[in-house]
Amino acid sequence: MKTLDIKRRRLVQGIALSGCYAALGTPALAASGKKTLGVQNLTDRISLITGAGANVVSFKGNNGQTLIDSGSQAASSALVDTAQELAGRLPVKTLFNTHWHANHTGGNEAFKTLGAQILAHENTRLWMSADFEVEWRNRHYSPSTPAALPDSTFYGSGDMDLGGEIVQYHHFPRAHTDGDIVLFFPDSNIMVTGGLMTDGSTYPVSDIATGGWMGELIAANDAMLAMADSNTVFVPGIGAPRSKADLQAQRDMLADVLDKMTLMAQDGFDASNMLEAGLTADYDAKWGDPTEFVLEAYMGFVHHSYDVGGFI
Question: From edge to edge, which strands make up the β-sheet containing 132-134?
Fold first, then answer.
């Protein structure tokens, strides 16, 4: 087992954070005991499945179905049923994981059992295979079962013909995690963002323990904006589809918070001081409780202090 312990000056120690990387939200239960999942058709081939712990996107190809993310393990049975019904019993042949968090990979084993090939960035597979602790969250992460791990991994970006449409996958390192990918359907003008964008009601937290930090999340958002136009539909990690203007608002909020954090750090503030001083006061009414966002952002800031002047 390895212990992730960032030993840098002013690092907040002993903070037990809530598990935001577990399934977000609890869908209602049907009479059968299965979770009820929602379906929104974005095009005649692309559908958004909600209520599975995180957003899942289905593409109906000519000879099979592709899923992007697999939700939580608790919702996997309902997701299998929904995917099969949605695509007219077309088998799920390909499953992309946008990153390693359990509410995006929990259904992997169920779909692999049915014959799906799972694709992800190599770092996603590595974190899913790891046994590690994160002290400031008071969390222990156990390895996923071998059957849940990606079958094929990549290190960069590329594209794939899904049988009727090309999807591009773009790797953005050290953003939400170090294995994040965004999947873009140019013909349909739909971008599936995974953890790189929220629904606007919660702050986008960078997982510093597995390679994320706010500076690179801003860079990833900039690259996503450059790929998009005013008509692009963005599917966030959870919640309703969003617009380019929504992503721009997230990016600008992050950049403003990072600038203010830099100035406060120069004045000797640590994360707790920043929260007390209202670092995010201009945004809390929209984005919610800033505690976890600021604590993780500050730890990433300390770890990447050379990128902001090297004074920490």
Answer: 2-4, 132-134, 139-141
In 3D, which of 126, 111, 1, 94 has the Cα closest to residue 52? 111
Query: Is 20 inside any structural domain?
Result: yes
Residue 311 lies in a domain: no
Mean pLDDT of all residues belonging to the chain: 89
Sign of CA dihedral 119, 224, 189, 241: positive
The CATH number given to whatever domain includes residue 81 is 3.60.15.10
Task: Count Cβ atoms within 10 A of the Cβ of residue 34 and give its class: 0-12 exposed, 13-18 middle, 19 or more buried.
Answer: middle
Per-residue pLDDT reduced to its tens digit, 106-152: 999 999 999 999 999 999 999 999 999 998 889 999 999 999 999 99
What 3-state class would DSSP assign to 66?
Answer: strand
| Residue ranges making up the domain that contains 136 | 2-258
Tell me if 79 is assigned to some domain.
yes
Q: What DSSP character marks residue 100?
A: S
Contacts of 107 (CB under 8 A, 6+ apart): 52, 56, 70, 71, 72, 73, 75, 76, 79, 80
Nearest-angstrom CA–CA distance, 11 and 188: 44
- Domain-embedded: residue 234: yes
pLDDT for position 34: 64
pTM, two decimals, is: 0.88
Pair of tokens at residue 240 = 């309703």
Overall domain count for the chain: 1
% of the chain at pLDDT higher than 90: 82
Q: Is the pLDDT of residue 14 over 90?
A: no
Mean pLDDT over 253-281 rounds to 96
